[in-house]
Amino acid sequence: MKVLVIGAGNMGLTYAEGMSKSKRLNNENIMVLDKSEEKLKELHQISYFDAFEDFKDCVPQADIIFIAVKPYHSESVFEEIKLFLNPKQIAVSVMAGVTIQTIQEGTGLTKVVRAMPNLPAQIGQGLTSFIATKEVSNDEALIVEDLLNTTGKSIQVTSERFIDASTGISGSGPAYVFYFMQSMMEAATEMGFSKEEGTLLVSQTFKGAVELFNQYNITPKAWMEKVASKGGTTQAALDSMDANNVNKLIQEAAFAAFNRAVELGKK
Ligand SMILES: NC(=O)C1=CN([C@@H]2O[C@H](COP(=O)(O)OP(=O)(O)OC[C@H]3O[C@@H](n4cnc5c(N)ncnc54)[C@H](OP(=O)(O)O)[C@@H]3O)[C@@H](O)[C@H]2O)C=CC1
Ligand SMILES: O=C(O)[C@@H]1CCC=N1
User: Which stretches does DSSP call E strand in the chain?
Assistant: First the structure.
């Protein structure tokens, strides 16, 4: 089995690296294609895949083709690969908002997996939601799932709507966490801590809270109550967040990402 990754950016390289650790593949079976000359020079230095710049040299050999370019480059990629495709090949797209229908129409392939990963995939801690068309056999879906799992965990969803919805939760979600971290670091600096101190205070707080959550079967709300003493400091902070509707605003932000994914799909 041979896998081709189109687009050697954050996601494409993450998958290439993850898949290089898969028992299903060895290094000669992973191909990566990118258009940028500068990037290609770097790609040729990497030993765990073969780098390509011409679609004709790699697309025909691939059984599974990961498409990891920005959504606005999808049309040009479809146009360029179309000539070299055969109906047995499986396209796996990680592009936000690009629908299965668009991928099928653009490539002529019927076997399509639409996936939504997230950035922690870079350290094997990703979460990828995915859905496969009915033309993808169960065995093929299992192979793709195994490949996706080389970057973390995955969930198979039952309708394409949940790919857009998970974009709003897990796909874009790491940025919401970084937003919160950034705000807390700015508050720490405002309080007089050095940048290094603020970074440690915040990063260890996030790490510890997430570890607690992962180790016990308790909701975030119940954990909040454990931290907050009646009339104490935490309650003052939580009351301030409630007064400013922070809960609702975070939900609105997640829906803004979800809606944007749907909107991208209409283009
Ligand atoms: N980053 C994230 O957290 C997540 C991203 N995604 C999705 O993953 C996809 C890729 O995102 P990301 O990795 O961040 O993007 P990047 O810009 O880092 O990577 C895309 C790569 O594709 C290259 N490229 C552009 N056009 C072509 C082409 N015609 N043929 C081959 N390569 C091409 C780009 O080159 P150049 O830079 O020269 O244009 C770039 O190297 C997007 O569709 C995004 O929606 C999904 C979930 C999370
Ligand atoms: O911002 C984006 O559009 C992509 C999809 C999810 C994360 N990054």
Answer: 3-6, 30-33, 50-52, 64-67, 90-93, 112-116, 126-132, 152-156
Write the pLDDT tens digit of every residue in 164-221.
999 999 999 999 999 999 999 999 999 999 999 999 999 999 999 999 999 999 999 9
The three-state secondary structure class of 175 is helix
Q: 251 C-alpha vs ligand 2 centroid, how far in Å?
A: 17
* Smallest CA separation from ligand 2 atom 3, residue: 96
Rg of the chain's alpha carbons, rounded to an integer? 21
- Domains in the chain, ordered, with CATH? 3-162 (3.40.50.720), 173-266 (1.10.3730.10)
Q: Which amino acid is at 38?
A: E
Nearest to residue 118, comparing CAs of 177, 192, 182?
177
Q: Are strands 152-156 and 112-116 parallel, antiparallel or unpaired?
A: unpaired
The best mutation among 94, 172, 178 to test binding of ligand 2, ranked by most ligand atoms within 8 Å of the C-beta, falls on: 172
- CA of 10, closest atom in ligand 1: 13
Nearest CA to 227 among 206, 241, 209?
209
ipTM summary value: 0.97
Residue given tokens 């908002």 in the structure block: 97
CA dist list (Å): 35 to 2, 53, 78, 198 = 20, 6, 14, 40
In the numeric block, which tokens belong to residue 84? 């070299």
H helix and E strand count, the chain: 12, 8
**pTM of the shown model:** 0.94
